[in-house]
Amino acid sequence: MPSNTPLIDRLKRLSWLSRSQLNRITNSARMIELKRGQAIYRERERAAAVYIILCGQAVLAMVEARRRALLTVVGPGDVVGISALISNGPRPFRCETLSECRLAVLESEVFREVLLSEPGTFDQALGAVFGRWSGLLRRYALFMSLNARGRVALALLELAERFGVSDQRGRLLPFALSHSMIGEMVGASRQHVTMQLVEFEREKSVLREHRRMVVVPEKLRLALS
User: Fold this and answer.
1) What angle in degrees, to the nearest 10, is found between the helix axes of 148-163 and 119-143?
2) In CATH terms, is domain 5-132 a member of 2.60.120.10?
3) Quick check: 114 pLDDT over 50?
């Protein structure tokens, strides 16, 4: 296995860590590689470790009584499994890979020590690790004021902003996203999502490139008005 340091050094979203903290993570973490569709962790399993996504994308989902709600998509630099920092009880969510992923796995006790080791970075660390949840709350508050068309548009715009690759046509999503997954993100059926995407394609606000999508933000934002 090649050295982990160059890969971790490239993670801009870990810029809140000092060099000594990065070195501690590099020396303590175990690297794993997973294919698309594999579980990083499952709901109700014991929370003993946190995971830093080094490359690829994954989804956080809540599964309850055979119903599944997709909470968010995470990518390089994101820390998942953070319930382990609070308790070693059962995990409340499931995390699955959306593409091939490489992750650093760190025991929760070690990660807590890294966060607490330098007071100067502690506030930034808290924001980076837990800040995603305030964004989720804001999004779902906004969802309440939107119809299904607006919710699909908002979800695609967020994914394009976070993960999209600049393209002369718009923002290319670097992973395939099924209509069912979008439905799980916005609380709509797969059939309804398909209908909305057909409309967006007709309006040229979403384009197809094989199994991936190109989002045209300036056009798609019109669906929010």
Assistant:
1) 150
2) yes
3) yes
